[in-house]
């Protein structure tokens, strides 16, 4: 089982912030969030999930295996308790991990994702889950991929080049299909109510114009997690970290300073 590549900033031993990206991104998406976290006294650490960024594939690329890999990474890094920050598939993976390891969770920051047993996949995801999935991912060129991402937000060619690593070869493409095809929302039935049971401070930071995980999902999290707080970033879409990293960092740090997660329990 290969180690996960990661980026980090700050001093080990300081309060740990574990940042988990989604599809098709990588730890690159957190690049402008890590330094301010470190400056504020946190140890920020962002892995590339297996088969994404500079992490090697670790087949099968299923949801369950990604959750297991995140726990192995957390243990290998010696992180006892973490402030968990998640986006997109990082939410499905990271929040499932959090519910499975409640004693390791200090606080939650949730962005542009879902964690609902009655969830529905958007059209692109549904296509990847279908028998057309192979043809879809195999036909994706770096140029076409960059154009698609550029149309969805402030993702430039250099960023797209980093994110295209998830589609760079056949093992990675097959891993993506395994991930989506393992993403049956009914698997979340046993987790119903578990996020609320964690009883930790929770911040929701959402792109106002997210077409993939609409603002309605943020409001549902807000209803289901008592005491959670929602910050909506106007003029941003699904890729909120690329669209407005400065505003995201400001909202995150302002909240962290106020809630002092270390005193939550």
Describe the model.
This protein is α/β, with parallel strands linked by helices and 265 residues long. It has one domain: Alpha/Beta hydrolase fold, catalytic domain (Rossmann fold), CATH 3.40.50. Helix content is 40%, strand content 14%. It has twelve helices and seven strands. The protein has helices at residues 34-39, 63-76, 89-100, 123-129, 133-138, 142-150, 157-163, 170-181, 194-198, 215-224, 240-243, 245-259; strands spanning 6-9, 16-20, 43-47, 82-87, 105-111, 202-207, 229-233. A seven-stranded mixed β-sheet has the order 1-3-2-4-5-6-7, with helices on both faces. Helix 4 (123-129) crosses helix 8. The longest helix is centred in the last third of the chain and has 15 residues, at 245-259. The termini are far apart. The mean pLDDT is 95.
Q: What topology, given as strand order, has the largest sheet?
A: 1-3-2-4-5-6-7
Q: What's the overall geometry?
A: globular
Helix content: 40-55%
Domains, number = 1
